[in-house]
User: Fold this.
Amino acid sequence: METLTFKAEEAFVKEMEEAMSPSYSTKTEFIREAIRDKINDLEKKRALKALYDNFGKGRHHQTTDEDDRRAREQVAKEYAKKFGLE
Assistant:
């Protein structure tokens, strides 16, 4: 395991201690969870951006608006399930 060190203002540390009580017993546990949550959030944002970037592409195939809607719904369901958004 690698050790990370960072400095924080006293007011920020007090705010963090108030936020972590009573669910977390240590600052380390709280910070690890916060970083995990941030990483998950960034992954969700990247996945949604990829979905939006690819939305509507591939129009050279002859599909109906209804086919497109069903395909978008299926992709959205798959992403929601993968990233716990359902």
Q: What stands out?
A: The helical segments are 10-20, 27-54, 65-82.
